[in-house]
Amino acid sequence: MSDYFTMVCPTYIENWSSDLYNMSISQIDVPLSLAEVNVLGSNIKGLGQYFSEAGQPIDQIRKRLEAALCHFPDGAFVRLGSRSAKDSLYVQHYGLRITNAYAAIKMLTEASARVLFDLLLARRNHYCPHIFVRQWMEIPAWAEFRCFMKDRKLVGISQYDCKNLGHCPEIAEHTERIRVAIERFFERFKESSHLDDIVFDVFAIIHKEESNVSVEIKLLELNPFFPKTDSCLFSWSCDSDFDGSFRYIQK
After folding, report:
1. How far apart are CA 75 and CA 160, in angstroms?
2. Per residue in 57-88, pLDDT tens?
3. Which of 2-19 are b and which e, b meaning 16 or more Cβ less than 10 Å from the residue's Cβ?
């Protein structure tokens, strides 16, 4: 498990360079102490028995989250630096947009196996994790792309949600613009990255002004360059499959 942690820890948001941080969404960092890891973990519904401090109040974490949320009056996306609690029961019922600290705590503690695993992993490795409060942005599912960097070379770009969405006319309409925008983004990304091999997720914002159309790229998250990371429309079984192409589901 320590080898796994060594692999994934550098991808956590709190370990990004300042340049990578600035290439992403506006966000507030809320660091946790190891004691707070136990407090947060003990509040995970149905799974808190894995932590000590069972039943301890979570007020201090809630206050710091409330202060962070004040920066985003239109709502925020709250996640660990490692990954989100998108498997949370709260998310299934109420969605991802958070407007108050009570909801943020519920999102993180409503039976999320992802949060449970990451908090246990952090505790086992004596690591203090972070919570990030990110400015809420409406990101269409078609606009997310998974990119692959090997030896600081862009070896693949894939439509992210290729299992549920199928063909997306928005991608088809702007294919070349999106590809060029990601390649330009990558020139800055590769200089800013603290890792030579990485899988990085981005999203595209299409700007239309009269007859002019432009594409802006923002960084979402990093993942290790290894087979446990979803390869989307590429395959880990063959190195040569990462041929630098831009892949999306066509008609």
Report:
1. 24
2. 789 999 999 999 999 999 999 999 999 999 99
3. eeeeeebbebbbbebeee
Q: Is the pTM of this model over 0.85?
A: yes
- Dig out the tokens for 32 from the structure: 């946790």
